[in-house]
Amino acid sequence: MTIASERTSCSYATVSILKNQEELNVSNGRKHGQKMIEQKIIKKNNQFI
């Protein structure tokens, strides 16, 4: 019984780590996307000058 419960808790931990990693990747992707958009805006503004 203890081995089985340890296994399930371990897999739960792994799943939660993976979910957290996904959330980090998504948030990093959004930040990166935002930077790309800002850079494009800066380039456009520089063309008008």
Summed up, the helix count is 1
Helices and strands, in order, run as: H
Give the terminus-to-terminus CA distance. Answer: 72 Å
Overall, the morphology is rod-shaped
Question: How large, in whole angstroms, is the Cα Rg?
Answer: 21 Å
Q: Indicate the proportion of strand residues.
A: under 5%
Q: How many β-strands, per DSSP? A: 0
Main sheet?
A: none
Q: Calculate the mean pLDDT score and round it.
A: 75
Description:
With 49 residues, this protein is mostly helical. It has one domain. It is 96% helix and 0% strand. It has one helix spanning 2-48. The chain is rod-shaped. The termini are far apart. The mean pLDDT is 75. This is Transposase.
Give the helix/strand layout.
Elements lengths: L1 H47 L1
Please sum up the structure shown.
This is Transposase. With 49 residues, this protein is mainly alpha-helical.
Structural descriptors:
mainly alpha; 1 helix; 96% helix; rod-shaped; Transposase
